[in-house]
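tl;dr need the bound structure. longer version: we got a ligand (4-nitrophenyl beta-D-glucopyranoside) that a collaborator sent over and nobodys looked at where it sits. i said id run it. heres the input, straight from their email, havent touched it
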Amino acid sequence: MKEFPKGFVWGSATSAYQIEGAWNEDGKGPSIWDAFCQIPSKVHLNETGNIACDHYHRFAEDVALMKRMGLKAYRFSIAWTRILPTGKGEINKKGIEFYNDLIDLLLYHDIEPWVTLYHWDLPLALQLEMDGWLNADIADYFAEYADICFQYFGDRVKNWITINEAWVVAILGYGQGVFAPGRTSNVEPYLAGHHLLLAHAKAVDVYRQKYQAQQNGRIGITNNCDWREPLTQNTDDINAAERALEFFLSWFSDPIYKGDYPASMRERLQDRLPTFTPEQQKIIKGSSDFFGLNHYTTMYAAQTKEGQKEVSVYGNGGLSEDQDVDLSVGKDWKLTDMEWAIAPWGCQKLLEWIDRRYDHPEIVITENGCAFPDVLDGREVNDTERIQFVEGYLDACHQAIQNGVNLTGYFLWSFLDNFEWASGYNKQFGLHYIQPDTLRRIPKASADWYAKVIKQNGLL
Ligand code: PNW
């Protein structure tokens, strides 16, 4: 039996737009994802999150499922436009009520809420009026929204995450244009990224100045990163892999832990990478109480060869031409339904890399998981591949902890099959199977499996 440290947090995660539905009910305003899904061919089969898992109406049933699985912590996000329908101004009481009810029910069942303030559903009004994350003023609006959340929910919520995956917002939203707001540019991602960092820093500043002392909670940011393994042991490839990690994770983590962007980015991007003023550096450096990490996969990285143009096959390399990195996967690596390689060893290496680079921070894996097609076996899904995936990655986490990494929590993505952004309902990450049209909720694996994994890992 593998022992995890005492107090290790075991949870599962979701986000508002992916599960809530009720997109225009009880005063909720539209977000950029509500709008993006209306544009033909942006999303697989033109699907939307209008209904999704209908969690807004069925949250009590969902919390009961969590309880039955033995979940100890639940990470969800607040929809900004339920609280502030146009992003600022008047508070929508019904929105506050919904999250109050959810939080109370979780606590009643001894499930610890971990709350993300921004999981990509920017108020559409702020996109139309001020170009969303491209406008520096957005940071103040975000901080005001965060302030409201701390004020209303902070008496019960003790774990806050400001922004989920700034990299995805910047690169997929403003670089490759495959996510809302669907823009393509090699300048805008770095500007949007800058404002995302400032928004995070300002929200943390509000929390620390006004709330943290009485409320006694913690606040941090969650960044995502794959592992990059050098394709060969040539210095060029070793450097390419390091640079790829810097363009992926350090872009957002170096400012927070060291006060500025990595030198490799400055050197290559020059003026396309904004700069922090000393006042900004003051609030951004040290602005995370823990290192939130979303980790899914691993790729080989190599120095781009002379004359070779770009690129990663899978699109999850960022703007490859800015990095001169060529990505690939091993021929015999097994892939998930997202075509993301399964490589638990990469998870261990990444945890140890973060531990070294950021001086032994407390790390929480706020997402890890895999998509596999659901093969129904009676009332259950034969979920062998997911079980193996989770066991492999937990093993890697355990090994990293043995090697001294201060990993204190693990959240499986996702609690329910849900709206997988541009992939619609085509990719299934959930521990529970959801059929959007009938809204059936079936555990993927038996309750026995959950109990077994929990027990085998020394979690009880
Ligand atoms: C994360 N990439 O998204 C998100 O936080 C979740 O909302 C999402 O459902 C989950 O991972 C699975 O995709 C990502 O291209 C989307 O590298 C794309 C990438 C990474 C994470």
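gonna send this back to them w/ a short note. The pocket of 4-nitrophenyl beta-D-glucopyranoside is lined by residues 15, 18, 164-165, 168, 224, 294, 316, 367, 413, 420, 429 (CB under 6 Å).
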